[in-house]
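W.,

You were right to be curious about this one. When I first looked at the sequence I had no strong expectations either way, so I just let the prediction run and decided to look at it fresh. Below is the sequence, 133 residues in total, followed by the output.
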Amino acid sequence: MREIKFKYIGKNLSDKVFIEIFTIQQIEENEVFKWMKKNNIVPSSVKRNQYTGVKDKNRKEIYEGDLFFDETDNFYLKVIFDIDRSLYCFERWENNEWCGFPSDELVMFFLSNMEIIGNIHENPELLESKNES
């Protein structure tokens, strides 16, 4: 059974980014609120991404919102949870917007052989630089 945990990303009033991973137990023990208070995080800035249970080729945990770059076809992929199908899959960055892309559970095997290059919340500049090229 995979460990259920979440990556929280938040900013303080100075726009400094804070990132922390919490387990369900820590969330139930109000550790998220303690983290936010300690770092003066603005509540409306907080994003939460769930761990997929899969790691990339460097053994880095893959979370919702993580970005990969497909060098073969020259596009970005973003990990999402498809609520209608109850599985993790991805969207593709095309023409300056996210497009649905046919995928299934095998996608996670595919991603486990790729490398995370960032996250949509932590590294939005990756997509901006791609738009300019």
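Here's what jumped out at me. The first strand starts at residue 5 and ends at 11. And, maybe more interesting for your project: The chain has a mean pLDDT of 82.

Coffee later to discuss?

I.
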